[in-house]
Amino acid sequence: MRGFIINIRKAKNEDVVVTVLTNNSVKSYWRFFGARHSILQIGNLIDFEEEDSTNNFMPKMRKLSHLSFPWIFNPNHLLIWQNFIKLFEAHLNETTNIDNFYFDLLLNAAQKWHKQNPKRLAVESYTKLLAYEGRLYDSGFCYICEEILDEKIGLMRAYLPAHPNCIYAHHLDKKSIFTLFNTYSTIHLDNSDVQELYNVLLKGL
């Protein structure tokens, strides 16, 4: 079974509880002596076997191996990746069965993480997720006051557009943002705008 580690919680002694996002589920596993295991890091893609508990407790994780990527030893790329993937644990909290969209989204991004600007990939992936979940708001009206948006807009969590004065936000070009919403591409955006989009992303999915 393959999956991305999206959370690790300390249990008793050196045991840990590991939350893994696979192609069809979000599930927590008990791992004995997990604190000693270098493979168990948030964001890692792992292959493992699931062992059912004998006392109706959570399943156990065994026969672990790490499926690495070329960027894993780049501190900057790794930090951005971990900040991005940690958002999925809160977003999918109390969810058990999921579509393969989430796993495929992360796998596709991870495979490109060393080839493209990781913050751009995170923003593009985030936009795809919002569209998939039907939460991409592009009606042209301010989410706060419901008046028509001007040429400059601000963005709230989940990229909800509003007048900058309504939310005291950084000014962004409306046309450029709506192009992102339609194409899921940041190629037309400069680095400062991408940084602002990334900052909004960190508020949560």
Explain the overall architecture:
Helix 3 (101-112) packs antiparallel against helix 4 and helix 4 (118-132) crosses helix 7. Helices cover 33% and strands 21% of the residues. It has seven helices and eight strands; from the N terminus they run βββββααααββαβαα. The two termini are 26 Å apart. Strand 6 (152-155) and strand 7 form a beta hairpin. It has two domains: 2-67, Nucleic acid-binding proteins (OB fold (Dihydrolipoamide Acetyltransferase, E2P), Beta Barrel); 75-201, Recombination protein O, C-terminal domain (de novo design (two linked rop proteins)). By secondary structure, it is of the alpha+beta class. The mean pLDDT is 93.
Largest sheet: 5 strands, antiparallel
Q: Give unreliable regions as ranges.
A: none
What fraction of the residues are assigned to beta strands by DSSP? 15-25%
Instruction: Give me the CATH fold name of the largest domain.
Output: de novo design (two linked rop proteins)
Average predicted local confidence, pLDDT: 93
Order of helices and strands: EEEEEHHHHEEHEHH
How many H/I helical runs?
7
**DSSP strand count:** 8
Q: CA-to-CA gap between the ends?
A: 26 Å
When the domains are counted, the total is 2
Radius of gyration based on Cα positions: 19 Å
- Trace the largest sheet across and list its strands: 3-2-1-4-5
